[in-house]
Design a protein that fits this description.
Radius of gyration of chain A: 21 Å
CATH architecture of the largest domain in chain A: 3-Layer(aba) Sandwich
Helix content of chain A: 40-55%
Distance between the termini of chain A: 45 Å
CATH superfamily of the largest domain in chain A: Type I PLP-dependent aspartate aminotransferase-like (Major domain)
Number of domains of chain A: 2
CATH class of the largest domain in chain A: Alpha Beta
Strand order of the largest sheet of chain A: 2-10-9-8-5-3-4
Number of strands of chain A: 13
Strand content of chain A: 15-25%
Structural class of chain A: alpha/beta
Oligomer: homodimer
């Protein structure tokens, strides 16, 4: 029985020690100078991570609250909305829009498949949607949707449509240049790639989204971007913010800026490839077959025939301390998911793969000893080689 | 210039060291066993603080989000609602109900005066309100409304009406026996008397409120009590919770339970009387003249003629490190507010009063040396004497 808990979830993710220490700082006045300095510095840092000049707001809420904010700040009841649904989080985005009275059409990808630009282009023919909802990283199916290509298709067909992107678990794992791709509202969560405990979510708001905000008639109060904008001018949030998480985020952003966006993306890409190569070397199937659409945040792995994924989860935790996630929705009985977003390095993936090999072997699944770690190390070698060549 | 920051705000409040240390704990899986144990234990502790058998939910949000939750979970657009407004937070509660389409009548008390049961009884004559909104502790005017008496009047006139109580800054400072007073939804904030950094709010939900929830048609998603109830059965929250704040709250509840509700209320009552006696001894006016209606969480003090309250705030902070709050709404140019809810003791009040005396004296306001501290010590002496007699 391992007493160490090694969480490898698609959020919450491990928190660096120096970030955890910031969590323990005494309170300050959220209406005072010290908070204003903190607020303004973090806001600038987030714009860097978002690659945007748009407003970026920090909300004291979970990611789902930020999804609600994107809807209620830009839409009115009966607005026509296209929801791209490729899993549980796409469903949730659509459901929120419906809850507030939007007229929602769903573009559904089969479970495990991406939303493609072609599918979106088909749907946009002849229908003037006010907004399109897209999930960047669909955690439930370990999917990375091609948001840049999808956005290009939307802009071509409907230049004025709002593109609302749930990147709660995506931002910081894979490129999402908000201004280059002309995205209107983009949501992210602090407990994901940002290496901060849960409780904060972020939202960028484009000029097009502000124009929509001025007309939008869905009811909103706590999540009102207008209030957030008014208070941001004073370096404040409209409601009492989760101050400790602001302290933590400031430190985490220092670390992320020191690493650099390109290096962060390359690291997530490498960790994803290591886990995928390792799982394949153990004879396991992946929910995403095509690397292009494989999530950089989490990998969905099919459990071998006759071994329930919850059994793999239990053994990984009991014997090695690794906490991985189960499946969601229709995949609940067939897959487990390994998170690799945020504060992880190559060594973390090697340890997980070694433990996974042991668990399968002890469960009488035939595996080639050392195969998973060997395959992952080869990915690492090639990746470091490419990085050196590119210098 | 003092480098120590001594916050005496009506929230956030100082955090005990052992609670701060809990904030720095590593993350756990919010869908796992360890979280379930934490969740269930805190929920029971909160029911103790609420003196209720009703459901109590922990929401990852500020107090204002919990106010929104109370409205959208129990009401439908065009429902008739009576909002008791005695300051900025009463206004906010009314505004939220209107934002979501309720038909709101306002019962307004003059700034600084309480809502009395008589005023409420008058308003209820002949009108069948679906709900009455009441602020327990109105922070902006440092007012404690007589919620028990108000609730009794409501129940007599309208046995089925919902009583929705904003006690964001009140619960834990003064008695609020939720079941005895038959209150339907009661909101509280973690960053107030609960001695935890901001980011969590609580809501109790009565059977009457659940019946209303089943019929209520205001749109709700993130704040839906139904989702909270479904997930609570599994020891979970519907959305990723602010896990660090759960750790902190568990420790804070241990401290509160060790102190006991009666002792906590007596302490807040004593701190309030010490500050009031001290302010009066310095010749300063109080927003609440009547002790019965004086907030146990915060005291509103008029600045002397010719000295702007922001000047007193600045001097208290620069010279002594005390961070007190300014006024809100129409009182912004006339009062400052001293918070004394949560982790404070008598010594904290003596220090603040000594600093206040010095600041006034240095601002050429005539004060009797030692008068404020002397008066506060006398309150303390009498209070300890009474406590001894009652043993």
């Amino acid at each position: 029985m391992s007493e160490t808990m090694r969480i490898m979830l698609p959020g919450p993710t491990p928190i660096p020690d120096s970030v955890l220490r910031e969590m323990a700082r005494p309170m300050i006045n959220h209406r005072g100078k010290e908070f204003r300095v903190l607020f303004e510095s973090i806001t600038e840092d987030l714009k860097w991570a978002y690659q945007t000049r748009n407003d970026v707001f920090i909300l004291t809420t979970s990611g789902s609250g930020a999804m609600e904010a994107a809807i209620v700040n830009t839409l009115s009841p009966s607005d026509r909305v296209l929801a791209c649904v490729a899993g549980e989080f796409g469903k949730r985005f659509a459901q929120i829009a419906e809850t507030y009275g939007a007229s929602v059409d769903r573009l559904e990808a089969p479970y495990g498949s991406p939303i493609t630009p072609e599918m979106v282009a088909d749907k946009l023919r002849g229908v003037h949607y006010k907004a399109v909802l897209v999930t960047h990283n669909e955690t439930s199916t370990a999917l990375l949707n091609p948001v840049g290509e999808i956005a290009a298709v939307i802009r071509q067909a409907l230049p004025d449509a709002l593109i609302l992107v749930d990147s709660v678990s995506g931002l910081g794992t894979a490129p999402l240049p908000v201004d280059d791709w002309d995205l209107d509202v983009v949501l992210a969560g602090a407990q994901k790639a940002f290496m901060v405990p849960p409780g904060l979510a972020f939202a960028s708001v484009s000029p097009r989204a502000w124009a929509a905000h001025a007309e939008a008639r869905m009811p909103r109060f706590y999540f009102d971007f207008g209030q957030a904008r008014d208070f941001a001018r004073k370096g404040q949030t409209p409601w009492t913010p989760a101050i400790s998480l602001f302290f933590a985020l400031a430190r985490a952003m220092e670390m992320l800026k020191a690493e650099g966006l390109e290096t962060i993306y390359a690291r997530h890409d490498r960790l994803m490839r290591m886990v995928r190569a390792g799982a394949r070397a153990l004879g396991l199937g992946l929910v995403q077959n095509d690397d292009r659409y494989a999530s950089r945040a989490v990998t969905g792995i099919y459990s071998p025939e006759g071994l329930h994924p919850s059994r793999i989860q239990a053994l990984l935790q009991e014997k090695f301390g690794y906490v991985v996630a189960g499946g969601q929705g229709p995949l609940v009985d067939t897959i487990f998911r390994v998170g690799h977003l945020g504060y992880y390095d190559d060594t973390d993936m090697l340890g997980l793969l070694a433990a996974l090999e042991a668990v399968l072997s002890e469960s009488a699944i035939s595996v080639q000893p050392g195969a998973a770690v060997g395959a992952a190390l080869e990915v690492r070698r090639q990746s470091l080689h490419r990085a050196q060549e590119s210098i």
